[in-house]
């Protein structure tokens, strides 16, 4: 009977083994299938990616084509708007010009109708027999798109639509072009083109002929719905299609995908065959590997051990503790240890010291515990120990406290020893009652519950600390003394009122510069060893939003900036200057990580009403006490880091020794500059300018040069920037103007120099009576003002045009020429050149250096020259260095050239010698 039971048991065990082997084989086959499929999947992705790149190129072509057609070729409204502008200026009370101008367009079959709105009122509508009764209607009587054109002040394309007042119910594309003068809306022209004509011009059917399904759609601005404009076939899913987005100004999207899909049937068959061959190879390898199953099973046991310490890992410890709980009756004490701040500490001690610490843990535990035990490492800084021993509460506490010392981690911070202690939690497990995994999880859960709870004394201390730091949400509801509670409430009300007046920005309801100084001073006074970090956030080119829109729009943008920055900094956020915000972080997170999170906060544009503003930010960082021991030092240093980020074009700058050197260098430059101006030893160099028509140097530009005491010179841009920031630019400008005029008066006629160009800072331009002051300096030198050209940068003029226009007008009345320097950097529109108070355009090197390799840049140069000719402006090309550049710029019609190809800047005496030699033929190598 007993033998039968044993045989039955063996048969059952054998069946279980066979079932286990079959399951293993099935798992291996499934794994081989998955792995064999991976190359096919990878190749499929590569093929699809190639075809998608081809589709991207096609989309780019069609996107540019559609924009060119909509904004140029088919844009009948633009020419009518230009005519409207001219006629409104010359004959504002006569409307017959519109019927005459638009009549030619209406003769074309594709032009359905044309409207002219004078202001918000429809002044003329053609054909008059169909739409004449609409004359006198306001913008509000038409669709929202007419009002949108007025708001955006630029071309708006809408369609296909059927106009509500059109009796023929024609389906058209509507082109709306506002007429704007100096930012003021005067009216708009609306031209409707036949839908089929517009779509035919775009030529989307060519995409289908090339094997692509297409769908052109746009987002309806009023409700955000998708509106399909044209498509190759109905009921096509474009979710996997390639897309391109453009704005007119509503958002339009063109989606395309191959008719037969991204992968052809032949390619699919080839990939299947490839995967089949690869699967056969893997199956052969798996068969050979099966012979080593026993070895692999032995290696599998190693997964129970943590390789760094030699202790169990969580899986191994759970299994070992489970075996213990199944054996014997002795209680098992379970201890959990967590080294707080371990992750940050190992970054400081380095990999070698960390390895030594981890390797020594096993020996320290073994030396401390004398009874049977289990030990495991659960993660980077947490450990668990099980001891087969019965203990009372006191013994458990003593054992846990003693063993925690074995996990003591020493860290050296700023040459000072620091020790990280392990916090602990313990519990008793009864054999046969507890499940190992649950017992471990319960112990860890109890640990985190305990550490999250605070004692009343600690809570009171924390509230006092928060009150000292200036937090406004501190309450003392735990007090039972009613008089104390009333006193605390009265104090809080008084403190809030005082802080509101002294430490709060009234517009944005946040801390200001004095509050930052007070809060950080409290932080330092309370605990001088506590580290914290400062992060300064500057909104790049923020002033353009105030200039282009309004101060209220700018305030709304800053409100949203404050809301986003409040997430990482909370109440430690301050507005210290205009669009500059400062946050204090008590976190030990690295500066790079915090900066990355701050940049992520501004990945999405800021929306104000219907306007969307993408923002770019610069971030500067420093920390206490490494970069300053007082709030004032920290503020000075982080502002230096921010200034360095602006000047270097970096998005993130962390204060360091290099910035200290920069500050010392700037102090040296300022000192030398003050002495040079006072002692009249500051050098003024000159760069001649070639007049191509006469092949003579007829002008020159005066440039400041400050010796660095080492045989060289400081950067002129750095010298001028420091002078502007430190209130010296007026004295510097007056000095250069006086020296340059004196040189021109003495040598100009002999050298053939008819005009002298002198750079003008915006600070010189905007001070009181600046025009009279400048004219007085020029007159005192004996120089005719008509021979002086004052150069002002394009960016400064655009930002200060309203304030500068009056001063520039007075200077030009006196005969002084005004040159727009750095033209082409990115601010100007050719359309408003006629409105700028300038006589000369100086094209920036950033444009001229690209004309040999970029046809678009050459075309832009020719457009600038032509527009300057129309507006009676002279053009100077700066930064010309090679003969090839000189030739192509000359062919564009530029009158003057300035650059190394002809001559570098030089002192006055060398310029005299140089010009006496006359013009020479240059080689490719600049002088």
From TrEMBL:
GO terms for molecular function: cyclic-guanylate-specific phosphodiesterase activity. Coiled coil: none annotated. Residues 530-657 form the GGDEF domain. Residues 666-919 form the EAL domain. This is Diguanylate cyclase (GGDEF) domain protein. InterPro entries: Cyclic-di-GMP_PDE-like, EAL_dom, EAL_sf, GGDEF_dom, Nucleotide_cyclase, Rev_trsase/Diguanyl_cyclase.
């Amino acid at each position: 009977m007993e033998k039968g039971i044993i045989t039955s048991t063996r048969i059952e065990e054998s069946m279980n083994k066979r079932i286990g082997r079959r399951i293993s084989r099935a798992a291996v086959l499934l794994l081989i299938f998955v792995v064999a499929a991976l190359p096919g999947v990878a190749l499929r992705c590569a093929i699809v990616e190639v075809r998608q790149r081809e589709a991207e190129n096609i989309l780019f072509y069609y996107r540019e084509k559609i924009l060119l057609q909509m904004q140029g070729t088919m844009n009948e409204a633009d020419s009518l708007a230009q005519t409207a502008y001219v006629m409104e200026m010359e004959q504002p009370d006569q409307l017959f010009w519109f019927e005459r101008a638009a009549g030619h367009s209406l003769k074309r079959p594709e032009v359905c109708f044309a409207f002219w709105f004078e202001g918000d009122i429809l002044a003329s509508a053609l054909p008059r027999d169909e739409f004449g009764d609409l004359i006198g209607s306001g913008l509000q009587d038409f669709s929202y798109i007419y009002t949108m054109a007025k708001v955006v002040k630029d071309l708006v394309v809408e369609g296909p639509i059927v106009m509500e007042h059109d009796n023929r119910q024609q389906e058209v594309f509507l082109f709306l072009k506002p007429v704007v003068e100096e930012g003021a809306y005067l009216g708009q022209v609306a031209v409707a083109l036949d839908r089929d004509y517009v779509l035919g011009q775009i030529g989307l059917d060519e995409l289908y002929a090339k094997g692509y399904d297409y769908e052109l759609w746009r987002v309806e601005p009023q409700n955000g719905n998708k509106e399909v404009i044209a498509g190759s076939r109905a009921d096509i899913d474009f979710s996997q299609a390639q897309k391109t987005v453009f704005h007119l100004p509503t958002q339009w999207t063109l989606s395309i995908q191959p008719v037969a899909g991204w992968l052809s049937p032949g390619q699919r068959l080839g990939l299947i065959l490839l995967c089949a061959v690869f699967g056969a190879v893997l199956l052969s390898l798996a068969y050979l590997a099966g012979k080593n199953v026993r070895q692999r099973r032995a290696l599998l046991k190693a997964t129970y051990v943590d390789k760094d310490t030699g202790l169990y890992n969580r899986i191994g410890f759970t299994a070992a503790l489970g075996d213990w709980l199944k054996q014997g009756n002795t209680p098992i004490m379970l201890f959990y240890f967590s080294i707080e701040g371990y992750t940050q500490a190992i970054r400081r001690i380095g990999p070698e010291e960390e390895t030594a610490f981890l390797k020594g843990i096993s020996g320290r535990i073994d030396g401390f515990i004398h009874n049977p035990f289990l030990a495991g490492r659960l993660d980077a800084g947490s450990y668990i120990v099980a001891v087969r021993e019965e203990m009372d509460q006191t013994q458990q506490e003593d054992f846990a406290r003693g063993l925690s010392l074995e996990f003591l981690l020493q860290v050296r911070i700023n040459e000072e020893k620091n020790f990280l202690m392990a916090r602990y939690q313990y519990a008793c497990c009864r054999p046969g009652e507890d499940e190992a995994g649950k017992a471990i999880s319960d112990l860890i859960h109890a640990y985190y519950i305990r550490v999250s709870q605070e004692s009343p004394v600690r809570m009171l201390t924390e509230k006092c600390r928060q009150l000292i730091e200036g937090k406004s949400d501190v309450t003392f509801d735990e007090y039972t003394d009613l008089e104390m509670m009333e006193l605390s409430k009265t104090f809080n009300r008084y403190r809030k009122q005082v802080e509101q007046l002294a430490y709060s920005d009234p517009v944005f309801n946040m801390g200001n510069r004095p509050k930052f100084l007070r809060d950080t001073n409290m932080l330092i006074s309370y605990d001088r060893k506590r580290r914290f970090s400062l992060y300064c956030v500057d909104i790049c080119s923020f002033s353009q939003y105030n200039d282009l829109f309004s101060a209220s729009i700018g305030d709304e943008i800053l409100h949203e900036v404050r809301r986003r920055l409040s997430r990482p900094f909370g109440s430690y956020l301050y507005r210290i200057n205009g669009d500059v915000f400062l946050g204090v972080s008590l976190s030990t997170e690295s500066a790079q990580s915090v900066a990355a999170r701050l940049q992520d906060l501004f990945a999405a544009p800021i929306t104000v009403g219907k306007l969307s503003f993408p923002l770019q930010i610069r971030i500067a960082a420093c920390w206490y006490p490494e970069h300053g021991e007082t709030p004032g030092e920290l503020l000075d240093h982080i502002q230096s880091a921010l200034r360095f980020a602006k000047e270097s074009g970096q998005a993130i700058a962390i204060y360091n020794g290099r910035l200290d050197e920069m500050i010392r260098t700037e102090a040296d430059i300022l000192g030398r500059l003050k002495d040079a101006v006072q002692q009249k030893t500051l050098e003024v160099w000159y760069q001649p300018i070639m007049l191509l028509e006469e092949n003579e140097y007829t002008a020159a530009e005066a440039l400041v040069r400050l010796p660095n005491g080492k045989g060289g010179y400081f950067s002129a841009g750095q010298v001028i920037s420091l002078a502007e920031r430190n209130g010296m630019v007026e004295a510097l400008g007056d000095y250069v103007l006086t020296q340059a005029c004196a040189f021109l008066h003495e040598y100009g006629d002999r050298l053939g120099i008819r005009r002298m160009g002198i750079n003008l800072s915006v600070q010189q331009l905007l001070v009181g009576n600046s025009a009279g002051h400048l004219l007085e300096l020029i007159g005192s030198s004996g120089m005719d003002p008509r021979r002086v050209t004052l150069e002002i940068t394009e960016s400064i003029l655009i930002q200060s045009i309203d304030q500068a226009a009056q001063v520039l007008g007075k200077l030009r009345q006196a005969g002084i020429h005004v040159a727009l320097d750095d033209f082409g950097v990115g601010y100007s529109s050719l359309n408003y050149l006629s409105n700028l108070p300038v006589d000369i355009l100086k094209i920036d090197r950033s444009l001229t250096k690209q004309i040999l390799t970029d046809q678009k840049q050459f075309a832009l140069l020719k457009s600038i020259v032509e527009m300057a000719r129309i507006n009676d402006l002279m053009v100077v090309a700066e930064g010309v260095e090679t003969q090839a550049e000189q030739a192509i710029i000359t062919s564009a019609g530029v009158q003057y050239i300035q650059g190394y190809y002809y001559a570098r800047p030089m002192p006055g005496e060398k310029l005299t010698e140089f010009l006496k030699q006359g013009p020479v033929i240059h080689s490719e190598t600049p002088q």
